[in-house]
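Teaching assistant here, posting this on the class forum so everyone can see the example we discussed in section. The complex has two components, and the goal was to see what a joint structure prediction looks like when all of them are supplied at once.
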Amino acid sequence: MRFHVAIDGETREVELRHRGAAQVVTLDGEELAVDAAWLGDRSLSLLINGRSYDFVVETAGRRVTLVGAGTRHETELAAGAATAGAGHRPATQAETIVSPMPGKVVGVLVQPGERVRAGQGVVVVEAMKMENELATRADGEIRAVYVKPGQVVEGGQKLVEVGPCSS
Amino acid sequence: MRLFADQSPPFAKVLVANRGEIAVRVMRALRDLGVGSVAVYSEPDRSSLHVRVADEAVALGGRAAAESYLVVAKIHDAAHQSGAEAIHPGYGFLSESATFAQAVLDAGLVWIGPPPEAIRLAGNKLGARRVMTQAGVAVVPGSDLLKDEADLAAAIAKVGFPAMLKAAAGGGGKGMRLVRDASELASAWRSARSEARSFFADDTVYLERYIESPRHIEVQVLADAHGRILHLGERECSVQRRHQKVIEEAPSPLVDAKMRDELGRRAVEAARAVGYVNAGTVECIADASGQFYFLEMNTRIQVEHPVTEMVTGIDLVRAQVLIAAGRPLAIAQADIAPRGHALECRIYAEDPERGYMPSPGTITALRVPEGPGVRHDAGITVGSPVPLEYDPILAKLVVWGADREEAIQRMRRALGEYRVGGVTTNLSLHLRVLDDPRFLSGRYDTGLLASGLEPAARDDNAKLAAVVAAAIAAAQKRDAIAPASASGSAWLAAGRRAAMRRPR
């Protein structure tokens, strides 16, 4: 089986095969001696060329997060053909800002029609006693504001729509 | 060294009016003493660890703290219903409410904490400043209460810029305004007073010299109901983010034996001045020249109490319970000598790589560090909820070493063993602090985190291993969804076996 794994904006190719009783892994054409053991359904012990790695594996759709020794790597798998790096969004496209977690809206910092710069805070959501300012990723104009201060929001709920500047 | 002559169980049952790691910590001390424990819990906390560790549990109902852990009448009913004889408040929530402490006493129960009057005295910042000054304890140079802008001008002439306007009844950073020059004075005066009025229903403010990026050092005291007050040395708490402590250590790298004696003596005087009984903390700040000033007294057990326990061998929560039962301390100041060095890392459910975004959820996997010198005080296990309603602290990782260097090395090792699945944690931040040259030298202040840390050392091997792991996880998942499409690959067989071990 062949996988294309996006990590830190680059894509690596991993092939999993077996040769007799042995398991063979090829990473970008380089063969690695890998021994893998699952402990429960989330802990994965890997021996790669004799070095030991111990990961907690979290899977959400095609995204796989690997929690290691003080590290956290987020990857995205593409089935079949190689894909380009994940997540690049041109500033000319509409952007929907969603709440990354359940919480309460404690501030709305923009109004429809207002021009915003990339990285500008638009909505403040409070969760776990902390206020979190959510920002735009690109320059643009606020098309719609879906929430009001005091409103309780779910994780993934739409907060603000940003589009390209109208003029 | 026996801290109390009589260590028999002082109560049959104690109610713990808290949640998370501190509730579990208190229940462990109770069980060590042979005392039963009663948990209280909100709706999101039904499956939390403190409910499972307790002998009994009473539902409070409600989700937010204001509907559950902060409702005095509900805690009361729970104590009555369970037949508990005493209440331990932990930290946060109602722990520093003199009103709650008084209500507990009025109900004929034992309050495991200081007398309400001591909480009241220590809780009013201006009142505490007066009491400390009378007791000969140095406070940050400042004014008494300011009646009008003429008072303010006179105070500024004495204190100088930069200065901080503070609400006398303040706390949590509310009613505080930094004044850097004369142009900011009028607006700071207005806004500090109006904020103080709306948060504390009391617009009394005073002025203090502003000490930029001080060190934050605090002294643990232990006072019994018979007039004996001991100090247990200091803790350094200068690794902070927005006034939230992140890493603490004992002893402080700044404090030598002579300073420790001096600080300790002052802390004991401060505790005596407010009529203190039980465990308490005298918080100080030190400026760049090493001059110490009294900041405030915390009238509860502190989050970071384990570092003191590790170097003194004294169980502070056990001591709290026995002191509340009226038992006299059986040791003298000379019996207390800190040994070695301890560090604590607070493990929070937040993402340091994304602006410390909170990460509520459910703990899906947990591997806890173990081995020599390691202590883990947690409020979680696999399956525990991490509700968004409360503080994001998951656990405290504490290590002891013969000296600071060994303790740091052990903490690095322990952090490397630690794995949490289901929520994002700040483990990577701790490792970066432990590699920072300023932290390693021991010469750091509360500006450490704000000034930025070096990025984490890149480990390309770990990254490639993560890529391989992601592919293996995908193969396993694919197999679990459509096993019929599989060939006889050993990879797939391993995936199937793992899938079959899933619960349910």
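For the discussion questions: The longest strand of chain A covers residues 10-19. Chain A touches chain B through 55 residues (CB under 8 Å). Think about how each of these relates to the inputs above.
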